[in-house]
């Protein structure tokens, strides 16, 4: 009887291991599709639809080009959204952000990364920046040609932050990086992201995070965005929400402490009862800085872009 119970326990444990180690990573790396339902025209912006092709695969990537007035243009910004989102990210209030940047003389090129929005799917799912970096590089090269003579910056939020870090580390021609609550530590963000979806303690998803790195190609130690950020030579502005439950502030502080090229700005804290938090559920204050503190956030970005 004892042997039968032991075998049953081992089978159950094996089944749980398979689910946590294989099924959960596969599901997590293929989030629900968020279609494009808005455009820059909804906030009064003139724009042009652009199609980009990354160097690594014959994919079509959809993007918006939102130019600043020629007599006011001072820079170009390539914008990369977060995982599971798209270029009009209502979570970040992206369209409002584009309008404010264009009004300040910064042209914006915002793309749907592969597997998102209106862009093609590669069948692999999220790469935490390791595959998406090719998409951002295509956007940077396009922006360099379109706005010749202007400085070009890349901005990424959440997984988009990891994406622009990976692109910059590979030598993308940029004048600076702007990161908002960037995905820096792969395992930490994976487990915390799983918690936001399920409500279960992040520690339960550590085996799945290991499998995502070992079997699904997510960047591990030495290759993840945090390690790449430590060695970036580019001027970098890192904007961090102090209470972000997914991309936690300790990793932002670690990156800034390791690299003098990174300037860290910590946004004001968000009170627990703030109504903006209610609809965000467990995602809390993740990438909320612009939504709640637009003037302060924009002031940091414009000061960075305008600095020598």
Number of helices: 11
The percent range for strand residues is: 5-15%
Share in helix: 25-40%
**Over all CA atoms, what is the radius of gyration?**
20 Å
CATH fold group: Rossmann fold
Number of strands: 8
Low-pLDDT runs = 1-21
The biggest sheet amounts to: 8 strands, mixed
Count of discrete structural domains: 1
Overall residue-averaged pLDDT value: 92
Tertiary shape: globular
Structural class: alpha/beta
CATH architecture: 3-Layer(aba) Sandwich
How do the strands of the widest beta sheet line up side by side? Answer: 1-2-4-3-5-6-7-8
> Topology as H/E string?
HEEEHEHEHEHHHEHEHHH
Distinctive features:
308 residues; alpha/beta; Rossmann fold; eight-stranded mixed sheet; 11 helices; disordered N terminus
Give me a quick take on this structure.
This protein has eleven helices and eight strands.
Overall description:
This protein is of the alpha/beta class. It has a single domain (31-185, 224-306), classed as 3-Layer(aba) Sandwich (Rossmann fold). 39% of the residues lie in helices and 14% in strands. It is built from 11 helices and 8 strands. It has helices at 2-28, 94-103, 133-146, 159-169, 186-198, 206-214, 225-229, 249-258, 275-278, 289-292, 294-306; strands at residues 48-52, 61-66, 75-80, 106-111, 152-157, 176-180, 236-240, 262-266. Strands 1-2-4-3-5-6-7-8 form an 8-stranded mixed beta sheet, with helices on both faces. Strand 5, helix 4 (159-169) and strand 6 (176-180) form a beta-alpha-beta unit. Helix 3 packs across helix 4. The N and C termini lie far apart (76 Å). The model is unreliable at 1-21 (pLDDT under 50).
């Amino acid at each position: 009887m004892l042997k039968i119970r032991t075998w049953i326990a081992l089978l159950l444990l094996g089944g749980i291991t398979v689910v946590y180690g294989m099924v959960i990573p596969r599901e997590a790396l293929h989030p629900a599709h968020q279609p494009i339902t808005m455009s820059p025209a909804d906030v009064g912006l003139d724009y042009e639809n652009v199609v980009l092709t990354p160097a690594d695969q014959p994919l079509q990537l959809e993007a918006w080009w939102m130019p600043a007035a020629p007599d006011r243009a001072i820079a170009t910004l390539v914008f990369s959204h977060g995982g599971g989102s798209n270029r009009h990210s209502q979570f970040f209030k992206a369209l409002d952000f584009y309008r404010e940047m264009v009004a300040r003389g910064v042209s914006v090129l915002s793309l749907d990364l592969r597997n998102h929005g209106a862009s093609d799917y590669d069948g692999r799912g999220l790469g935490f920046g390791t595959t998406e970096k090719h998409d951002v590089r295509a956007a940077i090269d396009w922006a360099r040609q379109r706005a010749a003579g202007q400085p070009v910056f890349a901005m990424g939020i959440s997984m988009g932050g990891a994406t622009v870090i990976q692109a910059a580390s590979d030598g993308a021609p940029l004048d600076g990086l702007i990161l908002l609550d960037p995905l820096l530590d792969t395992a930490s963000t994976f487990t915390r992201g799983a918690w936001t979806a399920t409500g279960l303690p992040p520690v339960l998803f550590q085996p799945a995070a290991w499998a995502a790195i070992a079997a699904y190609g997510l960047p591990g130690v030495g290759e993840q965005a945090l390690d790449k950020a430590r060695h970036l030579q580019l001027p970098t502005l890192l904007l961090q929400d102090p209470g972000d439950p997914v991309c936690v502030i300790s990793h932002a502080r670690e990156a800034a402490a390791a690299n003098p090229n990174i300037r860290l700005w910590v946004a004001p804290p968000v009170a627990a009862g703030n109504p903006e938090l209610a609809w965000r559920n467990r995602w809390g204050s993740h990438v909320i800085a612009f939504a709640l503190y637009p003037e302060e956030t924009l002031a940091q970005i414009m000061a960075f872009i305008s600095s020598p």
